[in-house]
Amino acid sequence: MTNAEVARTLERIATLLEIDGANPFRVRAYREGARVIEGHAESVSAMAAEPGALEALKGIGKDLAARIRDLTATGRTDMLDELRARIPDEVAAFTELQGLGPKRVKTLFEALGIRDRAALEAAARAGQLRGLPGFGEKVEQNVLKALATASAMTGRVLLAHAWPIAHAIAERVQAIRGVESVELAGSFRRRRETVGDLDLLVTGGDPEAVMQAFVSHPSVADVLGRGETKSSVRLDSGLQVDLRLVPGDSFGAALLYFTGSKAHNIELRRIAQEQGLSLNEYGLTRGERVVASRTEEQVYRALGLAWIPPELREGLGEIDLARAGTLPRLVELADVRADLHMHSTRSDGRDTLEAMAQAALDRGLETIAITEHSKALAMANGFDAARVRQSVGEIAALRARFPRLHILHGLEVDILGDGALDLDDDTLAVLDWVVVSIHSRFEMTPEAATARALAAVRNPFVNVFGHPRGRLIGGREGVPFDLEQVAEAAAANGVAMEINASPDRLDLSEVDARLARAKGCRFTIDTDAHATTHLENMKFGVFQARRAGLTREDVLNTLPHAKLMTAIERPARRASAGRTGAARTPAERAPAKRAPVKRTPPKRAR
Ligand code: DGT
Ligand code: CA
Ligand code: CA
Ligand code: ZN
After folding, report:
1. CATH class label, 250-324
2. Looking at the CA of 270, which ligand is closest?
3. pLDDT of 592 strictly over 60
4. Mind listing the pLDDT tens digit for each residue in 279-299?
5. Does the C-beta of 280 come closer than 6 Å to ligand 1?
6. Is the per-residue pLDDT at 524 higher than 60?
7. CATH code at 157-245
8. Residue having the nearest C-alpha atom to atom 28 of ligand 1
9. What CATH number has the domain spanning 333-589?
10. Closest CA to 475 of 441, 519, 505
């Protein structure tokens, strides 16, 4: 088990314990343990074998260490099995619905005996929730809304959640003697935000050995079918995986077919037919003769097309571009030089400023922006004007410690309900980089929402509109502003649009990003990291940008540092710096005194 998997299991135990009404200290210990493990660099599987190593970690006691040993040795622990026997998985999953934490789920389970989604929806519709302690009419309405959004997600898994297990299974199969190619096809290869199932294609190797390795992977809960050339399993997480063994000389045709999308395949087949050819998962053929089948490139070329990156294969005009030779050269992870949205323990991040900077440096980033929250998010220790000024010295000290990393003094400033920003212009002028975001009042009329977003992107100190919709995949629809108008105003004012790489945000969406690009916007792809481990999420933002057809030129944080600085310069800030006599860069200012560090663990803002 990877650290992330162990952490997720501990977090799941914590949630179940809470629904079960366990001692709050015990719940907190598990939750804290999950955070420690998730953020720990060394493999806990390796540490489990070493007596006392786990217990030596801060926040890991005897009880937790025992659970972790169970998990890393056998993949399960009695404690989780017992909790799951008492509390149905479907009930535990309620905690992922917007507005329902473990405490409310406990009430639903105990007071109303609700055991599944259908019962929850029925009870909410019948008005049975509003009278429960800690509920009310508003919560009841939110539950109905969340159920509706989540139903669009049913059975699907976030790409980022499928990512580690998909690669683990592929590696296990790849390690079998004789196996030549292993590819994860389907929506996974197209890097959709969510996947319905995984489609694994394999060539070479002894079929029996391949199938055996596949169905005996420790994450497999059920074998749904096992055959000569195809097997299907269901993993512990509920995700289904299909494995197909295909002949090496038709691997390209099979990969093309099973990558899809269906719409893309249908268009390709029509083009083949127009040329008197026929295309299926075995090859492109004319009569009996195979024209192309070994690689995807060969099949596309034989159809008169350039190879199309999987992220574009949705039947949205990519085939015309491939025929004309005008496919965009899509942005790549290796192009990204900066990450311009991240938090530290100073607001609601889990890791210190120093840890974030070190992790960014370790990842080879050239530039970062530290962007804590602003005061509207009091629960996240948001910064007020005085705290921003105090932060100048903290960032200067950080720069002194990390001379090889460019560090922008940024802030993620809340856009209030009326479109005003949470901090005044004089304070914004102190900053190098201003992200503006919506974290509250997601429900508005489109007119009010548009006015709100327009006001924010017209502020002359703003650099980028962070996770603009504020949507959560499978959880929250987001703000219904008219993107066409907002993107136009942003482009005119030199404000970039963010593609937020948090796996459950991926905001802007691909559709929105295409529209914003058409309106002339530039973009940043940022992790919005709240822990060093989240810097890994950059790839998911890049995938989303690629699905939107964005090139390196569309993305500001691919620029080398000096060019980035020119690109993000705001005339208003320069003028204001002249007017107030503020130093041009915070590094030139004298370090301010440090405030006593707050000890209360902040809640993470969503
Ligand atoms: P998912 O799993 O719902 O996230 O989406 P996909 O795209 O992975 O769909 P899936 O797993 O049902 O099938 C994998 C690929 O196989 C799909 O993208 C295209 C191809 N495929 C499946 N069924 C058909 C079909 O009936 N016609 C054609 N042309 N292609 C198909
Ligand atoms: Ca699939
Ligand atoms: Ca499938
Ligand atoms: Zn943020």
Report:
1. alpha beta
2. 1
3. no
4. 999 999 999 999 999 999 999
5. no
6. yes
7. 3.30.460.10
8. 262
9. 3.20.20.140
10. 505
